[in-house]
Amino acid sequence: MASNKWITIKGTRDGLTLFMNDQCAWNELLEELEEILSTKHMAADEPLITVKIELGNRYVTNQQEQTLREVIRKHNKLVVDKIASNVILKEEALQWKEETDVNLHNKIIRSGQVLEINGDLLLVGDVNPGGKIVATGNIFVMGNLRGIAHAGADGNRDAVIAAAHMAPSQLRIAEVISRSPDADSEGVPMECGFIDSKGEQIVMDRISTIARSRPDLNAFERRVMNG
Amino acid sequence: MGEAIVITSGKGGVGKTTTTANLGTSLALLDKKVCLIDTDIGLRNLDVIMGLENRIIYDIVDVLEKRCKISQALIKDKRFDCLYLLPAAQTSDKSALTPEGMVEIIEELKPDYDYILIDCPAGIEQGYRNAVAGADKSIVVTTPEKSSVRDADRIIGLLEQEDMEPPHLIINRIRNHMVKNGDMLDVDEIIQVLSIDLLGIVADDDDVIKASNHGEPVAFQPNTRASIAYRNIARRILGESVPLLSLEEKVSFIDKVKKAFGIKK
């Protein structure tokens, strides 16, 4: 069997990249992979090499991905870094969309009311003291934020909270909580809160500076680029 | 067919009962047929403020438990022929009333009255749910205090879930000198937070307490600031557009002259 029919290997500074043909059968691909890896013997004292796999337009299930990793792991000097594919399931895509969609709500969140959503929240209206808004993504309030806002509720520390008028009783991003100073403040127009570069606490800044600290605010784009 | 309006606030002591009594009196002064219902079972006050305490024979619980007819429990006011009170029971508690029972009573009263004002107990539990059950409209009373505005906000949130028109707001007990000094929330600030329509403002006036203690709502007096405010609110309920009363104290004639000559600002 002629080797390297379906798989092209490229060496880069970061390790190896395996380009796998996306037209052939899965079994053929695996066979060839075994063959390549077994013929290329690595010296025992060589350092670990990271491998990146480019699947092209082939969809692999979790199980297939697992097999792929196992085949490569058998050859003890190789570590799979990343498996990239151009395609995902519709179901996954919808889930991404839901998680990263901007949800528009047009109402006042009053004392005792809680608004919980998946993805980004755009609220056209106020959050009154005692009211609470929770989103897994970013929070944007076109109104007075006087209650509690919790962005990145399932652990996304990159989430931000922006408000046309910022006078919250508490801001929470992922597991970080900050509260407003005890002195009764009037609040600040057009402000934005995010976790600082050290990842310790929530800092406040003008909305216009958010482009600098969070250039990839659009979670959907970010996710597509990173797989 | 009448209209049932519930008067509520969430917080206690902001003047729900006083407001109910005075709006009832004001509407009666405008020749409307009015029935006041006290739903604060166990802590009834409306009868005291109306000065009708000693006339109570049957109460709302008796009506619900069919011990009497509704017409037997209704008490006619001393001053008006068109004003009636359905008093609360003092010996039971809030669970003696049910939302369904309230709807029944209000539906029975509606054909005979222009307005049915329901005095709601403080809180957001059973008593509140009873009071709101049969209402078509709602009025939220608040004072210019943070805690009271907070509770009003909560109540408005609950009222918005009910099947009725958006609530209206009455701001009670405004002390002008404190607002001026910035020690009290001002009207604009409260409306900005609550964002509902303002029905009226009532100044904090000693006459209100005096009148209530005499069992005669202040709205009956011709020209105290509070009575004018209440009568204006009643006219707004009827659909007239009446400008808000100025909160400024009356300025003496000498001061007016001085101001005119530019001696005093």
Quick structural overview:
With 227 residues, chain A is α/β, with parallel strands linked by helices.
Descriptive labels:
heterodimer, A: 227 residues, alpha/beta, Transcription Regulator spoIIAA, Pectate Lyase C-like, 6-stranded mixed β-sheet, 5-stranded mixed β-sheet, 5 helices, 15 strands, 35% strand, elongated, B: 265 residues, Rossmann fold, 8-stranded mixed β-sheet, 8 strands, 16% strand, globular
Description of the structure:
- The complex is a heterodimer of chains A (227) and B (265).
- Chain A is of the alpha/beta class and 227 residues long.
- Chain A has two domains: 7-84, Transcription Regulator spoIIAA; 97-214, Pectate Lyase C-like, CATH 2.160.20.
- Helices cover 22% and strands 35% of the residues of chain A.
- Chain A has helices at 26-39, 62-73, 90-100, 210-213, 219-226; strands spanning 7-12, 15-20, 49-54, 78-84, 102-105, 114-117, 120-124, 132-135, 139-145, 148-151, 161-166, 170-173, 176-179, 188-195, 202-206.
- In chain A, a hairpin with a 2-residue loop joins strand 1 (7-12) and strand 2 (15-20).
- Chain A is elongated, with a radius of gyration of 24 Å.
- The mean pLDDT of chain A is 86.
- Chain B is an alpha/beta fold.
- Chain B has one domain: Rossmann fold, CATH 3.40.50.
- In chain B, 40% of the residues lie in helices and 16% in strands.
- Chain B has an eight-stranded mixed beta sheet with strand order 3-4-2-5-1-6-7-8, with helices on both faces.
- In chain B, strand 3 and strand 4 (83-86) form a beta hairpin.
- Chain B is globular and about 70 Å long.
- The relative contact order of chain B is 0.17.
- The model of chain B has no long low-confidence stretch (mean pLDDT 91).
- The interface between A and B is medium-sized, with 12 and 12 residues.
